[in-house]
Amino acid sequence: MTAEIDMRAEWGEMFGALAQAFAAGDRDNFVEVLDRLAEARSQSLYKDVREATERLRSALDQFQLNSRLATLAGKEVPDAKLRLDHALKLTEDGAHKTLDLVERSCPLAEKVAKQASNLVKTLQSSGVAHRVAADLVPGIQEFLVAAQRDSEVVRANLTEVLMAQSAQDLSGQIIRGVITLVSEVERTLGQLASLTGNDPANAAPAADSGSVSQGFGPVIPGLTKDAMSEQNDVDALLADLGM
Amino acid sequence: MNPKLKFLVVDDFSTMRRIVKNLLQELGYANIEEADDGATALPMLQAGDFDFLITDWNMPTMPGLALLKAVRADPKLAKIPVLMVTAEAKREQIVEAAQAGVSGYIIKPFTAATLSEKLGKILNKG
To answer: Among A144, A201, B12, B34, which residue is least crowded by beta carbons within 10 Å?
Structure first.
């Protein structure tokens, strides 16, 4: 029906004029209308060819976009995930190695401090010093006091080293968050790449950025809203709540 | 201080569990067990005779907040002190933890002194 209306709208006037000229036997007029008709027909053909070219070009663009998406989803994103997993493993291994050393060193420092302390006491008590060459005693005492003091400092330093490793937990949590996000991007890119059309209804859903009950992960400076930056702030808030 | 107190340290990162464990040992506590998620911690709490729970918040299966609520809802466990040691620092979360009955709240990164102070405060309150 529509096609018929289109046909009549497009060609009706010229066809009528042509038929009229033909019926009237008006050759000049007939040829003139016939030329107009041929001209219009070729214009319409050009239009169709232009439209087909346009469709072909956009299909080619779409194809290129799809193959880029496929590369992203199939290769680059999984690679990024592997890299992040590896970074997570490296920081974790490093942290554990440091923790091993701290755990092995702490008792040694503690032992040295204890033994030095005992020796100082023994030396200071009467009746022992004279058995050692008299001129050695001050040096030995000085050393023992220093060993005691220094190994306590070493122990304190080791505790600091221990605490410094807590950064691995925080960076690890952040990396895990990125890995989850990357997986989500990978999944939605995969879906996009497999589409032949370009339906916006299939656009990627927003990645889940956490919830109060599950947790949001470590505070990222400049990114996390309404977060306490220090233990003091937390203590003040808890005090306000009556704790 | 009672060195016999039995602690459960819950965190999905093994490095953080080791750090908390070492700090507790330095403070003189030797009876410490570990769990890597609220879901594994809860049966341990129900089966064991733990005196103190230290838990992270953000864990894959059962987050620390859910663990805290489960502990407070269980008549056998309800009275256990629960200290949260977490990177979660949003105001609404701290309020929610307080309402759920948390005994103390430490945000990461934290210092050995902070842990010692909060532990002391909770234990002295009885």
So the answer is: A201
Q: Which residues of A171-204 are buried (b: 16+ CB within 10 A; e: fewer)?
A: bbbbbbbebbebebbbebbeebbeeeeeeeeeee
Alpha-carbon Rg for chain A in angstroms: 43
Please state whether the peptide bond connecting residue B109 to the residue before it is cis, i.e. omega within 30 degrees of 0.
yes
User: In Å, how far is A203's CA from the nearest CA of chain B?
Assistant: 27
In this structure, what is the dihedral angle of CA atoms B17, B21, B24, B25, given to the nearest 10 degrees? -170
CB contact under 8 A, B88 and A215: yes
Nearest-CA residue of chain A relative to B38? A214
Q: Which of A95, A226, A230 is the closest to B90 by Cβ?
A: A226
Domain boundaries along the sequence of chain B: 6-125
Instruction: Tell me the pTM.
Output: 0.66
Which of the pair, B112 or B39, is modelled with greater confidence?
Answer: B39
Burial A118-129 (b: 16+ CB within 10 A, else e): ebbeeeeeeeee
Give residue B10's pLDDT band: very low, low, confident or very high (50, 70, 90).
very high
Query: Residue A222 has what pLDDT?
Result: 64
Fold of the domain built from segment(s) B6-125? Rossmann fold (3.40.50)
What average pLDDT does range A199-228 have in this prediction?
62
Chain B residues whose C-beta sits inside 8 Å of any chain A C-beta = 11, 13-16, 18-19, 22-23, 26, 57-59, 63-66, 86-96, 98, 105-112, 114
Residues of chain B with pLDDT > 90, as a percent, come to: 88
Kindly give the interhelix angle for B112-125 and A137-164, rounded to the nearest 10 degrees: 80
Number of helices and strands in chain A (H, E): 6, 0
Q: What number is the ipTM of this complex?
A: 0.73
Could you read off the pLDDT of A40-79 as tens digits, one per residue? 888 888 888 888 888 888 877 776 666 777 777 777 788 8
B19 contacts in A (CB within 8 Å)? Answer: 99, 162-163, 165-166, 169
Please report, in angstroms and rounded to a whole number, the separation of the first and last CA atoms in chain A. 80
Instruction: Name the CATH code of domain A2-195 (choices 2.60.40, 1.10.287, 1.10.3470, 3.30.1340).
Output: 1.10.287
DSSP state of A218: S
Residue predicted with more confidence, A78 or A193: A78
